[in-house]
Amino acid sequence: MRKLPPLGALRAFEAAARRASFKHAADELHVTPTAISHQIRALEESLGVRLFERQTRKVRLTAAGHQLFPAVRDGLDGMERAVQAVQRSGRPQVATLTSTVAFMARRLAPLAGRFRAAHPDWTLRLDASDQIVDLDHDADAAIRYGSGSYPGLLVESLFRDRFAPVCSPALKLASMQDLKHATLIHFEWGAAARDDPRAPVWHRWLAQAGVEVADPQAGLRFTDEIHAVQATIAGQGVGLLSLTLVAEELASGALVQPFDLALESFRYDLVYSERAAERPATRLLRDWVRGVFAG
């Protein structure tokens, strides 16, 4: 008969050790920080050793904690994989990929059929969200848009986005000076991105192009990037748009890029957690995304 502490106490210990925080462990396990503290204290008493050094805003493993943590982590990971394998055996296999609303609508949704054709035994679940999704529990992988820095996660760079003026060919934009009389279409970035020097906004593009317009903030403004794209396709003005998001329209001729000058912007990265790296769903998504977008 195995002599082991309660599973709940081991889960609390593993989460707190991995996150270096009782509070973050509590959030992950959907309990209170007090409950985590009690479970770990009971575990320490049963083992007769201290597992953590308590500090004001975080905790650190003691030597005994460092000795115990890898075995508990690996044991729980093995249990999770076994449970998932049993669950998959009794239901369809689902791979969940999350990304921003705009990238999902403009690039991933049109490609979903390719995944299904290549992997008929799998269901592809596409989760469109501009919020950060938990990649340990709520998705198998993500295509994220940003600086490329995602602490604690595994990151594979896909490509860097570029922005340039695009418009309907019906507008007959012949020179940069025509922009002085054109309706400029703006997407309103969030505060954090707007203050980033890589944020592609009209006044930055115009400054690099050496074009002066009466009011570079005037025109049509949208809080949703997809709406800015739709207005541009409809011929409502000239949009400073992601060349990634309008690649199909540029290829078909529905939109044109009158000027070569483009602003380098944020990165698209394939991101997943270390714990999820060997899931069949994550491996499948990783290979598929690489094949579609990398290079």
From TrEMBL:
Which InterPro entries does the record associate with it? Answer: LysR-type_TF_proteobact-type, LysR_HTH_N, LysR_subst-bd, WH-like_DNA-bd_sf, WH_DNA-bd_sf
Q: Name one GO molecular function term.
A: sequence-specific DNA binding
HTH lysR-type domain location: 5-62
Query: What keywords were assigned to this record?
Result: DNA-binding, Transcription, Transcription regulation
Which Pfam families does the record associate with it?
HTH_1, LysR_substrate
Specify whether rRNA-binding is a keyword of the entry: no
Signal peptide from the UniProt entry: none
Provide the GO biological process annotations. Answer: DNA-templated transcription
- Record-stated family: Belongs to the LysR transcriptional regulatory family.
- Name of the featured protein: Transcription regulator, LysR-family
Q: Which organism is it from?
A: Cupriavidus taiwanensis (strain DSM 17343 / BCRC 17206 / CCUG 44338 / CIP 107171 / LMG 19424 / R1) (Ralstonia taiwanensis (strain LMG 19424))
